[in-house]
Hints:
Layout: H1 3-22, H2 54-62, H3 66-72, H4 74-84, H5 88-92, H6 98-111, H7 116-125, H8 132-139, H9 145-155
Helix pairs in contact: 1-2, 4-6, 6-7, 6-9, 7-8, 8-9
Amino acid sequence: xxxxxxxxxxxxxxxxxxxxxxxxxxxxxxxxxxxxxxxxxxxxxxxxxxxxxxxxxxxxxxxxxxxxxxxxxxxxxxxxxxxxxxxxxxxxxxxxxxxxxxxxxxxxxxxxxxxxxxxxxxxxxxxxxxxxxxxxxxxxxxxxxxxxxxxxxxxxx
Length: 157
């Protein structure tokens, strides 16, 4: 795998895992200092509303809609554009989350799907939508749909 792909996967993993780690309990049963009701979780006392570190920024971004995630995460947006040839906002419109969009983009590129990403997207998100595996079966009948769907999902992480 290319170094940039591995870096992207690491960024996505950290962005998606950060909220789970942020939900651990704190001594005394209350939230940590600066994270109670009415406080901005991305700031510390004395800060002017900017995020205190990149982990907080990733955490905030992972809670947003796909549109929000793409507007804040230029690495993911750039990867989607390179895979699909489309602006990431346009490419991911209709998908439930970024992971589904990325998986479909990888599969379309890997299998050189007839009609490209748009054909695969239409099957997965359109009227009468089907799973990624079923869409692969329909558009690339000679491919191992289960294996290709799995590869696409792994590449999107």
